[in-house]
Amino acid sequence: MRGFSFVFLAAGLLAAATAWAEPVPADKMAYVGNWHGKDMQLSLTKEGKIVYRRAKPNSQVDLSMDLQGFKGNDFDAGVRFMKTTFVVSKPPRRENGKWTMTVDGVELTRDA
Length: 112
Fold this sequence. Notes:
Blueprint: H1 2-18, E1 33-37, E2 40-44, E3 49-56, E4 59-71, E5 74-79, E6 82-86, E7 88-95, E8 98-103, E9 106-110
Antiparallel strand pairs: 1-2, 1-9, 2-3, 3-4, 4-5, 5-6, 7-8, 8-9
């Protein structure tokens, strides 16, 4: 029985370690959605799940991460102890009937 309890404890600790996503705050809901731009796709759910794809010369980045919080317009994302900051130079705004924002130097448009 002792080994059986250890398995449940280990499973619980693993689940707690991976459940780090922060929900998107009410004042940042404009960030939620599927965004695309030149060689970049970014998806953010209101629950704080992020999917990021970016093509670079000779490489492809394809990540699923959890939102770890906002700092001004920028937001942090990561998995467990690894973190990256998405630098938002132009926050979400409506222009000519489309939602746009600029992240890491790439202008993105939100899907309708």
